[in-house]
Structure to design on (424 residues):
């Protein structure tokens, strides 16, 4: 065992033991020396590892979304302290601490997989070189060397010479064709996974350098897999192809059921949720209630898709509540409008408009519409406003009507403009 393998001995032994246990099961079905038995053992190892890493994957999603949210603030710090790198780093760390965000959390699944990857690599490398490693004894070593996946030995590489491949009982053409196809599939799955993240699950309302970095990684990672893949044994290529397919399917599930706010995936999800809620008249799943609760709590900070969802519920006679439930609207139901303020819905909330009067009714003071306040009639005038007898006599005198009218140049119903002194 070489020095590097000895450094990973703490993990190579458990990995080899898991592979042997799966090989025992599949060997009874397909035969102990077949490529199916050993290949499915590696696939099962990947699935077991990825199931154990699901909690880290959840943390990765939360960390990635938190980083996307902080991008505007990070950009302001970079512009403010662009000439002081030390102060810029201090402010960044302060921002991470205040928001409880850890940039390394997005790398946790990859970092956690690395020891298993190196352990599997050294196990397969030991099989190729004829060395026992971990719990793989001489009998298992000979069985693994006989295993072929579509004609390519489990421990063969794309860069192996013809003599090395012939020692494993295969031809160099079979090995290179199989490894080339697996490298292409591995790179394509990585590219599709990253492209799916960029086109569907990124907040399109915020343009940040983080998006440019992710876009660059979309092209860098597949190239890296293609370059390094030619030095990987077939068994390791099976491992990476399986883990890439798992990541792609896992990400598709997350994007479909818990998309990033402001993304195209969220708009599609809220459209499906609207149809589901209006069909059943309520939110039935716990995940649906959680998302509706978050949308209601945003208030005025909702994006366009969220406002459309809330307004659609209101038009359908439903109201989203603060606890994430959806109830039918009535006169007593309070719903959240698009600006986040509570408003009463239902028929009782509608303002009753007065009926329009005809021209003759307006001129003669005819009957008013229901609900419209009527003006005081002549008989309803207060006593102190009625003119006295002297006033009525003065009004009856000739010329009184002329004096009662406002003088020319004077304002009606308000303070009069003082006259300028006359010039003699």
């Amino acid at each position: 065992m070489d020095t590097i393998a000895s450094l990973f001995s703490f993990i190579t032994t458990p990995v080899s033991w898991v592979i042997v246990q799966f090989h025992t099961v599949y060997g009874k079905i397909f035969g102990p020396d077949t490529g199916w038995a050993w290949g499915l053992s590696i696939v099962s190892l990947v699935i077991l590892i990825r199931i154990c890493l699901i909690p880290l994957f959840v943390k990765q999603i939360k960390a990635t979304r938190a980083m996307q949210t902080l991008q505007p603030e990070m950009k302001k710090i970079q512009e403010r302290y662009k000439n002081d790198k030390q102060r810029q780093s201090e402010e960044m760390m302060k921002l991470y601490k205040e928001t409880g965000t850890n940039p390394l959390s997005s790398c946790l699944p990859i970092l956690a997989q690395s020891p298993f990857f190196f352990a599997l690599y050294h196990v397969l490398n030991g099989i190729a070189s004829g060395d026992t490693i971990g719990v793989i004894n001489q009998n298992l070593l000979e069985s693994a060397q006989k295993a072929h996946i579509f004609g390519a030995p489990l421990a063969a590489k794309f860069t192996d010479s013809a003599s090395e491949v012939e020692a494993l009982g295969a031809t160099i053409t079979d090995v290179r064709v199989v490894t080339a196809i697996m490298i292409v599939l591995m790179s394509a799955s990585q590219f599709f996974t990253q492209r799916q993240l960029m086109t569907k699950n990124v907040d399109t309302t915020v343009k940040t350098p983080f998006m440019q970095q992710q876009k660059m990684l979309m092209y860098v990672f597949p190239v890296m897999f293609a370059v390094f893949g030619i030095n990987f044994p077939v068994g390791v290529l099976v491992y990476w192809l399986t883990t890439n397919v798992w990541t792609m399917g896992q990400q598709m599930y997350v994007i479909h059921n818990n998309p990033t706010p402001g993304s195209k995936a969220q708009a599609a999800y809220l459209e499906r949720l609207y149809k589901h809620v209006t069909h059943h008249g309520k939110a039935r799943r716990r995940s649906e209630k959680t998302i509706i609760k978050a949308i209601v709590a945003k208030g005025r900070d909702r994006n366009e898709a969220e406002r459309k969802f809330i307004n659609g519920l209101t038009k359908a006679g439903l109201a989203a509540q603060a606890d994430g439930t959806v109830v039918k609207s009535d006169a007593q139901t309070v719903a959240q409008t698009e600006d986040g303020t509570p408003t009463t819905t239902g028929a009782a909330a509608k303002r009753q408009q007065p009926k329009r009067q005809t021209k003759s009714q307006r001129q003669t003071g005819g009957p008013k519409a229901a609900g419209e306040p009527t003006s005081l009639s002549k008989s309803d005038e207060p006593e102190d406003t009625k003119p006295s007898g002297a006033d009525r006599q003065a009004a009856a005198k000739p010329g009184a009507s002329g004096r009662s009218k406002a003088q020319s140049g004077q304002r009606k119903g308000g303070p009069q403009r003082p006259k300028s002194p006359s010039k003699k």
Remarks:
- Residues 331-350, 369-386, 389-409 have pLDDT under 50 and may be disordered.
- The first helix runs from residue 3 to 7.
- DSSP finds 17 helices and six strands in the chain.
